[in-house]
Amino acid sequence: MSQLFKNLTRRKSATELLAEHQPDDSIHGSDLIRSLQLKDLIAFGIAAIVGAGIFSTIGNASAAGGPGVSLLFIFTAIACGFSALCYAQFASTIPVSGSAYTYAYASFGELIAWIIGWDLLMEYAIGNIAVAISWSDYFTAVMHGVGLTIPEYLTMDFLSASRGYQAAQEMMAQGQAFAALPDSKQEAYLAWQQAPTIAGIKLVADIPALGITILITYLVYIGIKESKRTANLLVLLKLIVILLVITVGAFYVRTDNWTPFAPNGISGILKGVSAVFFAYIGFDAISTTAEECENPQRDLPRAMIFSLVICTVLYVVLALVLTGMVPFQELAVGDPLAYVFSRVNLDVIAGIVAVSAIVAMASVLLVFQYGQPRIWMTMSRDGLLPGAFSRIHPKYKTPYFATFVTGVVVAVPALFMNLTEVTDLTSIGTLFAFVLVCGGILLLEEKQKVATATHKGFRVPYINGKYVLPLLVLTAVVLLNQFGQAEVAAFFSMSGGWESFQHKIPLLGFVGVTAIFTVLTFIKNLSLIPVLGLLTNLYLMTELGITNWTRFLVWLVLGLVIYFTYGYRNSKLNKAAATAKV
Question: Which residue ranges run through the membrane (predicted)?
Answer without folding.
Answer: 41-63, 69-88, 199-221, 233-253, 265-283, 304-328, 348-371, 400-419, 425-444, 465-485, 505-523, 552-568
